[in-house]
Design goal:
eight-stranded mixed sheet; globular; Endonuclease, Chain A; polyphosphate kinase like; 3 domains; ten-stranded mixed sheet; alpha/beta
């Protein structure tokens, strides 16, 4: 930083707080988010099978957290790196705190699981223990076992002649101590549970009954180890490091990623889950062979692999699930006979997923693929589905002779293999596929369609906050902005030139991109609000995002708070900012919404010095969260919303509803804890509101003073 910046910063009282009091640890904040997800499984307002789904999601989230985040911290410890985190913790201190909080989460998961199992019984859905299996069940299960499980099981002795086998990430294994019935010799053995089997086997009959595959296998151990008696048995499940290392000098990026994917499958063991009654000698043997310490072993008094309990969500039982979502196709496009281009020419419009259908995005591309006047299509692809209509439209467009360019991001975590497949399919069809930058991840969501009209070229653009993924678009709340604004069109073309040819634009007209300017733009806009506050004018900031981590932005928000700017943030997941601290952040409120839909849209609104700023506010949507990686190591886009109708929809409907929500909202307290917002007064759910009112009307009332009036016009 410059000397001038240092002098300026020291004028603000929040600088008197040491950094460890200004920032919440990122990893612990994420765990608290996942605890909020898990708490939804205790939310009696949700249907029973949806509560089970929330429990499963919390388990899957925790698995991924250890595969990636904890693996990184362990890597630092192994390498002897003692670099302190932003809030002053060493890697070892972070890991200890993570494990303590994660253990609390695991305990709560198992308590919840025990309760849900009883609730499922009341609805005649049973998870059967092996002790409850009848003779008829045994006959059926034996046939099922011999036909569907036995052929792919491989019992493995563990002795000097049979070294301990490789167990894949998230793999289950039964570990056994056996005794030969003839000579009395002991044998240690493993029985890896193949991933190709279902985790739960449904038993025949009118009742809905399941048995876990591991318990099914345990019923027939005598067929796997004849002439042996079982002296001890246990079950374990392991988590491996799933980060990928990629050579920055790579000549063929696709081949490098294919090799890295193979290496990832053999990552180091990060965590071992065992059933609580596993014999000590078996536990010690497994721990020794996997070369992990006791701190990395978690004893579970319940079910292992809680991420997989969603397999118990059976067909039917509609009364135990959320009412099915029937997203509305945008009325304005319907009125134009489905012509997306005619709709955009008339006026910019925005679509609010999943309440409004993602089909409009697919239609936009399909229309472009079929339209003989369309000459070029350019698109970024970060994540998409297995049978992607988006990719199919790009392939059709290329095969019809159009110029089609697709930026495929190979570094989309856990979607690398799918993206490689799509890239090759598109290349075979004639799509110009590029992979962006090795050192940067392309996270911006942009589609450019160039169409010849009246002997001139017109550019149509889609800017999104979410992925081009028709499946996640049904459960993620995101925004799709369609425009033919000439400046935004030129900006989009410049961005693609940067992605494909490394030609960094000198200056964009309206859009802002990272890794260059998004943080600077946000800082400047916050400074404007600080200036308004010092001049005695209304000064406000409202923002919605998935994560707030960046310490530079956080300090700027503290500065704004100390200057009198009113700040309301909706941060679904990680938040490293401490709100409500006197002398530092008393003008900042932070809430998190966790509910049926995953809040994913990023929206930023500045009051712009007006008491009633609905018309004058500066409104932006973005692909970027407020994290160092998004500002420095990703290609992201920040787009202004200038059309008055769209602005009113984003500010007066979406932000109002998010701030008004008190059904699925949690408030972040200054001590880092989260408290569910009290619903003693009028109850309001943003998700339920938009389910009933899927089409944004733009009729939300204006903002007055510090906060929204929190009213929505039905």
């Amino acid at each position: 930083m410059t000397g001038l910046q240092t002098i300026e910063e020291n004028r603000f009282p929040f600088r008197d707080f040491p950094v460890y009091e200004r920032l919440i640890n990122r990893e612990l904040s994420w765990l608290r988010f996942n605890m909020r997800v898990m708490e939804e499984s205790n939310n009696m307002a949700h249907p029973l099978l949806e509560r089970l789904r929330f429990l499963s999601i919390s388990g899957s989230n925790l698995d991924e957290f250890y595969m990636v985040r904890v693996a990184g911290i362990k890597g630092q410890i192994t390498a002897g790196i003692e670099k302190l985190s932003n809030e002053g913790l060493t890697p070892t201190e972070q890991l200890d705190k993570i494990n303590d909080l994660a253990q609390m989460l695991i305990n709560e998961q198992q308590i919840c699981w025990a309760s849900l199992i009883e609730n499922l019984k009341d609805e005649d859905i049973h998870l059967t223990d092996k002790n409850d299996i009848t003779q008829e069940d045994m006959k059926w299960l034996e046939i099922y076992f011999l036909e569907n499980i036995f052929p792919i099981l491989t019992p493995l002795a563990v002795d000097p002649a049979h070294p301990f086998p490789f167990i894949p990430n998230l793999g289950f294994s039964i570990v056994l101590e056996l005794e030969n019935n003839e000579d009395g010799k002991a044998l240690m053995a493993l029985l890896p549970v193949p991933r190709q089997t279902k985790r739960f086997v449904r038993l025949p009959g009118d009742q809905v009954r399941f048995i876990s595959v591991e318990n099914c296998i345990r019923l027939f151990l005598n067929q796997l180890f004849p002439n042996y008696s079982i002296k001890g048995e246990g079950i374990f499940r392991l988590i491996r490091d799933s980060e990928m290392e990629v050579d920055e000098e790579a000549e063929d990026l696709v081949r490098v990623f294919e090799s890295a994917l193979k290496r990832r499958r053999r990552g180091l063991v990060i965590r071992l889950e065992v059933n609580s009654n596993i014999p000590d000698n078996l536990l010690q043997m497994v721990g020794r062979e996997l070369r992990i310490s006791s701190k990395e072993i978690v004893s579970v008094s319940g079910i292992l692999g809680i991420a997989e309990v969603d397999q118990l969500i059976v067909e039917g039982f509609s009364h135990l699930k959320f009412k099915s979502l029937d997203p509305r196709f945008p009325q304005r496009v319907k009125e134009k006979g489905g012509d997306c281009f005619a709709t955009i020419r008339e006026k910019d419009f925005i679509v609010h997923h999943p309440f409004e259908s993602f089909d409009v995005v697919v239609s936009f591309l399909r229309q472009a693929a079929l339209d003989p006047d369309v000459v070029a299509i350019k698109q970024t692809l970060y994540r998409t589905s297995d049978d992607s209509p988006i990719v199919n439209a790009l392939i059709d467009a290329a095969e019809s002779g159009k110029s089609v360019t697709a930026l495929v991001e190979l570094k989309a975590r856990f979607d690398e293999a799918r993206n490689i497949k799509w890239a090759r399919d598109m290349e075979r069809a004639g799509v110009q596929v590029v992979y962006g930058f090795l050192e940067l991840k392309t996270h911006a969501k942009i589609t450019v369609i160039v169409r010849r009209e009246n002997e001139q070229l017109r550019t149509y653009i889609h800017y999104g906050t979410g992925n081009y993924h028709p499946i996640t678009a049904k459960i993620y709340t995101d925004l799709s902005f369609f425009t033919d604004d000439e400046a935004l069109g030129r900006d989009a073309v410049h961005i693609f030139n940067y992605l494909t040819g490394y030609a960094r634009p000198k200056k964009l007209e309206k859009a802002v991109i990272s890794p260059f300017d998004i943080r600077t733009k946000l800082m400047n806009m916050i400074d404007r609000e600080i200036k308004f506050a010092k001049e005695g004018k209304p000064a406000s900031l409202w923002a919605k995002m998935n994560a707030l981590v960046d310490p530079i932005i956080i300090d700027k928000l503290y500065e704004a708070s100390c200057s009198g700017v009113s700040i309301d943030l909706v941060v679904r997941g990680i938040c490293c900012l401490r709100p409500g601290v006197k002398g530092m952040s008393e003008n900042i409120c932070v809430k998190s919404i966790v509910g049926r839909f995953l809040e994913h849209a990023r929206v930023i609104c500045f009051g712009n010095g007006y008491k009633m700023p609905s018309e004058h506010a500066k409104v932006y949507i973005s692909s970027s969260d407020w994290m160092p990686r998004n500002f420095e190591r990703r290609v992201e886009v920040l787009v202004p919303i200038e059309n008055s109708t769209v602005k009113s929809q984003v500010l007066g409907q979406i932000m109002v509803a998010n701030l008004k929500d008190n059904i699925q909202s949690w408030t972040l307290m200054s001590d880092h804890s989260y408290c569910r917002i009290s619903t003693s007064g009028e109850k309001f759910s943003a998700h339920e509101y938009f389910l009933k009112n899927p089409s944004l009307s733009g009729m939300g009332k204006a903002i007055e003073g510090k906060a929204f009036p929190l009213q929505l016009k039905e």
